Structures are given as structure tokens and as C-alpha cells.
Amino acid sequence: MKNLFFSIIIISLLNCCGNDNKKADKPIETKEVTTENLQKFNSVKDMLTEAGDFSTENGTLKIIDENSEKLHIQVSKPIVKGDLDKVINEIVKRDIIYVAFQTFAQTPTEKITITSIPIDLEDRSKYYEEYKKTVTVTKETADRIMKDELGTNDYSILFSDLNGIQVPSKEFDKLKFEKLDETFNKLK
Question: What does pTM read for this prediction?
Fold first, then answer.
């Protein structure tokens, strides 16, 4: 999501500060991503590093086991003291959904264990264990959810092209926001 935020800011700045032939109020347009042009990665670590949402350098990504049979990663979104429990729990679920479906869309991975545990925004060595959730997901389960919720097993619909950058689509947002609890419960 960080990449999406920065991409939108950069595109807005380019639209505002570009040549005189461009209108600053021109809406940002997205294009459809197809199976053929969906970005693919050899590993989940490469995929997450490229997306920039999680990083080993800042403690938001840990590879617990890289073995393809036991692939286990930990992701952590920063939270601040005072965030509501409901919001934190939603963040944890959303991260698991995001990583699971992104993994099956963009890598050859067939099974992944994802641990999501919030990290303190100010103290990157402090994790909030009380919110920690771990889910093991297979592509077969994700396929079933895709078919039930979105009517297809074509993972490319989870992404849109925003001036050459692939970002989560409205369909992906349905799984992560509109149907958050339903999707999470089906994953676990």
C-alpha cells in the first residue's frame, strides 16, 4: 500500500508540474492487468521486496522458513499506541489476505504460512504479540475463495496497472476490506 500511496503522489506531482500540455486536474487512469502481463516473481521474498510493503531492513518482514515445502514468513504493519483493538485486528487480517493472494497471483508458490504481528511505529524492535495471527494457506483454498467471491480463478483481476505500476484493484480491495472477515475465515 505504501507503493500505491507514493505512486499516486508522484503521478499527481507529475501531472501538476509536467509540461503545459497536461492538465493538473486530469484523473489518474488505471488499466486492466492480464494474466500475460501480471508481474511474476521466483520467490515470495522477491515479490514483497519489490512491492515495498514489507522490508527485512525495518523489521516488517521476516523469512522464518524459506523451504518451499514449509515456507513461512512474518509480516508486520506499524501501529501506534492508542490504535483501537478492532483496527489493529483488521490490519492483521488484511495483511494475511494481501500476502496470501499476492503470493498465489505472482509466484509459483502452492502453500504458505503467514504470521502477521503488528510492530511499534516508533520502536521497531517491539512487536505486539497479543494481536499475532498465523495462517497456513494453500493455493487450492485461495482458488476456491477467488471463485466463490470474485467468480474467477484469474488472479490478474486482483491488480490494476497505474502508469506501469501494478497496484491492488477494486476486486482485491473487496477481499481485503468489504469481505475482510468472511475472506479471512475462509483462509484459516
Answer: 0.83
